[in-house]
Amino acid sequence: MNGEKIDMSESMRKGIYILPNLFTTGSLFAGFYGMVATMNGDFKTAALWILVSSIFDGLDGKVARLTGTSSKFGVEYDSLADVVSFCVAPALLTYKWALQPFGRLGWLAAFLFVACGALRLARFNVQVNTVESKRFVGLPTPAAASMVSAMVLLFYHFGWPSSYKKLAILVLIYLLAFLMVSNFRYYSFKDPELIKRQPFAFLVLAVLLLVVIAAEPVVMLFLIFICYTFSGIVGFLMTWPRRRRLEKAIHNKHTKEEP
């Protein structure tokens, strides 16, 4: 602990990198403004600002890696900003938008989302050097917050009655809280192969996807986030037989080696 404090102090004396931390600050501002909009009863605007926050959050890490400006300060600042933008802001939004009529059960559900999000971030920080960079362990907090925002925007888009949203958001909050602290693997989109040359068909598919998103942005955003949310569960189920065979083979090997 003392060693980490000394390293951080030395890094602070040398200065901090402005550009990536500006993007992190933008993410923090968007998340905070989302809470302000929630308190003013403008839930649609709050959902949009949480989505804006997730865009800034995705850019700060990429900017830091591309410019070689990654730092311990940036990592810690990013985690603190994520707690506000992707834990507290969406939890407050869900509580004011749908969970408040449940009373104590409502705010406890919102708190569970905050707690699981914070735990997810803490686990990520301690496992960042030991886990495969192409996969996240547990649903990332920006994805969970974006899923909440997409749900809110979908209800406004179709004008569904408020009685539906209470049960839907209650189930969603518990599901997202569980997925954030689960061991399901989620694609991180940090694969270097993504920025290398790809077949021409990939460009055509990307253009078609943009056209579809532009035609129905709210519906497509919801579908994208719901697919990503369940991708960890689907991946776990698809690889379960292979993992079981591998575990059985390892067990049989150890059994044969025993005298």
From TrEMBL:
The record's keywords, sorted A to Z, are: Lipid biosynthesis, Lipid metabolism, Membrane, Phospholipid biosynthesis, Phospholipid metabolism, Transferase, Transmembrane, Transmembrane helix
Catalytic function, reaction form: a CDP-1,2-diacyl-sn-glycerol + L-serine = a 1,2-diacyl-sn-glycero-3-phospho-L-serine + CMP + H(+)
Quote the InterPro entries the UniProt record gives.
CDP-alcohol_PTase-I, CDP-diaglyc--ser_O-PTrfase, CDP-OH_P_trans, CDP-OH_PTrfase_TM_dom, CDP_ALCOHOL_P_TRANSF_CS
| Transmembrane intervals | 16-37, 105-124, 136-156, 168-187, 199-215, 221-240
Taking the first listed entry, what is the main subcellular location of this protein, grouped into a coarse class? Answer: membrane
Q: Which Gene3D superfamilies match?
A: 1.20.120.1760
**Which topology term describes how it sits in the membrane?**
Multi-pass membrane protein
Q: Where in the cell is it found?
A: Endomembrane system
Q: Name one Pfam family in it.
A: CDP-OH_P_transf
NCBIfam families from the UniProt entry: pssA (TIGR00473)
Q: What is this protein called?
A: CDP-diacylglycerol--serine O-phosphatidyltransferase
Recorded source organism is: Geobacter metallireducens (strain ATCC 53774 / DSM 7210 / GS-15)
